[in-house]
Amino acid sequence: MAEEYDHAGDGLLPIIEKICPDKSARILDYGCGTGRDLARLSKRGYTNLIGYDQKF
């Protein structure tokens, strides 16, 4: 089931980078699943990331 979450929302990162160019801004991913998107943002230089998912 986790694999299904990891493939959802692949187009999200370019949108986040466009609307939030400040890489030190606080970003909360509520319902982050496995945290894949936060890990990818971290690799792109974002530093203030928080993820929460009740299921994982």
Describe it for me?
- It is globular, with a radius of gyration of 11 Å.
- It has helices at residues 2-7, 12-19, 36-43, and strands at 27-30, 49-52.
- The chain is of the alpha+beta class.
- It has a two-stranded parallel sheet.
- Helix content is 39%, strand content 14%.
- It has 3 helices and 2 strands.
- The protein has one domain.
Short description:
This protein has helices spanning 2-7, 12-19, 36-43, and strands spanning 27-30, 49-52.
Q: What is the number of helical segments per DSSP (H or I, 4+ residues)?
A: 3
Coarse morphology: globular
| Tally of structural domains | 1
Strand order of the main beta sheet, please? 1-2
Low-pLDDT residue spans? none
Please tell me the overall pLDDT.
Answer: 87
Taking all Cα atoms into account, the compactness measure Rg is 11 Å
Question: Would you report the number of β strands?
Answer: 2
Assign a percent range to the helix content.
Answer: 25-40%
| Secondary structural class | alpha+beta
- In percent terms, what proportion of residues is strand? 5-15%
Largest sheet: 2 strands, parallel
User: What is the N-to-C order of secondary-structure elements (H for helix, E for strand)?
Assistant: HHEHE
Termini gap: 11 Å
